[in-house]
Amino acid sequence: MVIPTSKPFDPLVDVDSLEGKHILITGVLIGTSGLGRSSLFALAFHQPAKIYFTGRNRDSANNIIKTLGQMYPDVNAEFIPTDHSRMSSMRQALQKILEGPFSRLDILMCNAGTMACPPTRTMEGYDIQFATNYMSHALAVNMLLPTMIKTQAEYNSDVRIVLLTSEAYMLHPLGGIDWENIKTNTKSKPLIRPSIDRFLPWGGEWMRYAQSQLANMLLALELSRRYPQIRSIAVMPASISDTNLIRTRSLANRMLIHAVEPVRSPEFGAMTQIWAAGSRKYELTNGGYYQAVGVEGWHVRKSRDVVLGARLWNWTATELGLKDS
C-alpha cells in the first residue's frame, strides 16, 4: 500500500535492510489494533534480529509473539511488561533489558501514549499525560543511550530514535510547558489543572496533552544537538487512527477528533513512524519533525526554542535522577 503524499512510501519496499538490527518499540497495544503493533509487524517483515516491545498484558503479548513466529520465524521477539505512566515500572523494565543479552540497539521507537485524559496525577505526582507521553521516553532514551552510542560507533550503523508527537502540540500553554503543574503532591494539589481549566474545563485536557507532545519535539531537537551521531526524529502519525486510544476517549473528544480528520486504520496511521525508522538515512533531518510520510511539519516558535529544550532536559534529568550529559 502506497500512501498518497508528496513522498510515496511502501513499507514493503522502501525500508532499508534491518538484518541484524535490534529494535525496541514502547507501548505496543495488546489487541487487534494500534500504531505500535502495526509498526512491529511492518518492521518484522524486514527481518531484524531482535524486537523488544513493551505493554501491559502478557497473555495477549504471547499471542503477538506466536503470530510473529509463524510469519517471521527468524525474528526474535521479547515482551517486557511495563506501565508507562509509572517511572518506577519503566525503570524496572529498562533495567531488565539491560541486564539481559543486550549488546546493541539500532532503533528506539517511543510509541507509548495517552491522550486528552481528565486531570490525573500519577503515583509519583506527575500529570499522567506528561508522564506517559514524555517522561517515560526521556527515561528510556537516557538509560539506553550508552548502548545506542556504542552501536552507532560500529561500521555502517544507523541508529535512530523515533519520538511520536502530534500537531496538537500547537495548543501548548503560553510558555510552552506549565512547569508549576506538571508535578504536584496530594497535600497541595490533588489534581493537576493548568490555569486554562478555569476557563475551558473541557479544553484543559488538550492543553496538557499538547505540552507532552511539544516536550517530545524538544527532546528530539535537544538529542540532535547533544548526540549528532544518532538520528533523533519527532513524527506525527500519518492519520488519526481507529485505535483504543481513540475509542476510549469521551464522546465529546471522539466527536472533535472525527471532525478534525477522517479516522483511518492503524496500518495507515503507523506509516510515518515506520518511514522514520526504516527509510534511507539521507531522507531524515536530525532533530526534525515530520507529518504524513516524509513531509516536514509546521513549527511554531516554542517547538524550535533551544532555551526551552535545554531547560526541559535539565528539569527532566533532575526529576528522574539522570546524568546530565
From TrEMBL:
The keyword Ribonucleoprotein does not apply. The keyword Ribosomal protein does not apply. Coiled coil: none annotated. It holds the Pfam family adh_short. Keywords: Oxidoreductase. One of its GO terms (molecular function) is oxidoreductase activity. This is NAD(P)-binding protein. The lineage of its organism: Eukaryota, Fungi, Dikarya, Ascomycota, Pezizomycotina.
